[in-house]
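Hi again,

Forgot to attach this to my earlier email, sorry! This is the prediction with 2BA bound. I've pasted everything inline since the attachment limit keeps bouncing my files.
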Amino acid sequence: MKLVMAVVQDKDSNRLSDALIDADFRATKLASTGGFLKAGNTTFLIGTEDEKIETLMEIIKENCKSREQLVAPISPMGGNADSYVPYPVEVQVGGATVFVLPVEQFEQF
Ligand code: 2BA
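Structure tokens for the complex follow:
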């Protein structure tokens, strides 16, 4: 068994939830925040059998889109102004960042 942790953009989270339910995957959604953009995203915890991982990856890939996002400039607080960029910068945010972990034991009480 594996535990899949997938960080996805909020805009894709409802679509992915629906697709997971349709394909009979069980998932938990956690509200999370990206460390770099400090913007909300959604982390899915999905426990599943090893043989279903490929199907699950396809579902995640199909339902999560990569997008450009603007990072607002943060003004320097009495510090080094040399590296300060006074205009918003665009970064490419991936469709999904996925970690696959082995599960030692799974119980439901
Ligand atoms: P954030 O940390 O808010 O990052 C959003 C996007 O900003 C990243 O997209 C990347 O394109 C860019 N970025 C992040 N750190 C950067 C840096 N130090 N310098 C320049 N650009 C940087 P993604 O890589 O697609 O990541 C999307 C979200 O997935 C991340 O949001 C974070 O919440 C999560 N994530 C990505 N890699 C992770 C990792 N190794 N461990 C845990 N969470 C991760």
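The helical segments are 10-22, 53-63. The radius of gyration is 18 Å.

That should be everything now.

G.
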